[in-house]
């Protein structure tokens, strides 16, 4: 029996371990603990030695990427506490509701407004705003979690600030405007299917606002000012480091300097926003407690477990093996273009993961003489399937923090996301066919 299990295809092993992680979490085991257990099982299933598994896990836990990501998420929670104390969260939700005609559209679009700033685990930032808009608690914890999670990512495939978008452009050779055009269909349909499948029972009454439009807009911008500060500071630092070589680039190892470049601008921006918000009335109340709270520690544990699992999966070579299995089995090019990014997104839980692992494989399927539209159609289809795979991955940090914030089970989000995700993939296939016919 053991010999049979060891000979299973890599993709079967991956899906089995994922299922066990989701099952353990659904039975009350903390997601971080479930992920670490899954990491150990995956390592053993890949014939890794105990020392190699332990070294990989501890290496990931102590990596600059994990430490800075954990710090970033705790700072986000701290800023959220400060914004709650100063009633910024409440003001953002109420003023945004007054600007948008439909409360349903408001709750669907506000997370994506926050999502214009790519921020690992940023779903925890928009979560309190979704709670504030759903003031009647009509969605419930499960509905709030999946609404926040799904709609936060609706612009990801075509927004040029996302690292996965930038890498897609670099690997495919498509310019940023062309890649934006190739994925231009995605935000509308991601939002549409989210509204149809996730918000069909959300029908709050609209509260009339007698204030003029300029006054309502000014109120929203004033309430939104801490987030605008995060955007401004992080964008400014990003622009600066893109043209100035920092001393840390040569003084520190590449993994550390890369992590500092990835998270540093946002961390500095959030610290600035915390300081700005704390200067207001009651803004400083509870900040220290929030930073060292049990919720923050649980969030760190979740991130650490996910990173450990991802590290073991990478060290075991599961992603590469699964992609090779699909390609060598004689699967048609269309199916490989869809399946490989989907599996990569499922395995890694991040945009850079499915782009970096899958795109070199699927792009090689196009002939060297392929037209611009053919290349764009391939990238568009691969991106859509990678995106949905990522959204269904328990390794996705935003899923993990949503589970932790709203105190729900991972299975609740997976079941809810499956419907709009499947509908979106049907549209993506039709879009692919349309581009191929042009």
List key phrases describing it.
single chain, 438 residues, mainly alpha, 2 domains
Main structural class: mainly alpha
- Taken in chain order, the helices and strands follow as HHHHHHHHHHHHHHHHHHHHHHHH
Give start-end ranges of low-pLDDT stretches: none
Radius of gyration: 22 Å
Shape: globular
Task: Please tell me the total number of domains.
Answer: 2
Mean pLDDT equals 82
> What is the percentage of strand-forming residues?
under 5%
Distinct helical segment count: 24
From the N-terminal CA to the C-terminal CA, the straight-line distance is 52 Å
Topology, number of strands: 0
Helix residue percentage: over 70%
Described by strand count, sense and barrel closure, the largest sheet is: none
Structure, briefly:
With 438 residues, this protein is mainly α. The chain is built from 24 helices and no strands. 48% of the residues are buried.
Could you please describe the fold and organization of this structure?
- The protein has helices spanning 2-6, 10-26, 31-45, 50-61, 64-85, 88-99, 103-114, 123-133, 140-152, 163-172, 176-182, 186-198, 213-223, 225-243, 247-251, 254-278, 287-291, 294-316, 318-328, 333-348, 351-363, 372-391, 397-406, 410-437.
- By secondary structure, it is mainly alpha-helical.
- It has 2 domains: 8-62, no CATH class; 65-201 and 212-437, no CATH class.
- α2 (10-26) packs antiparallel against α3.
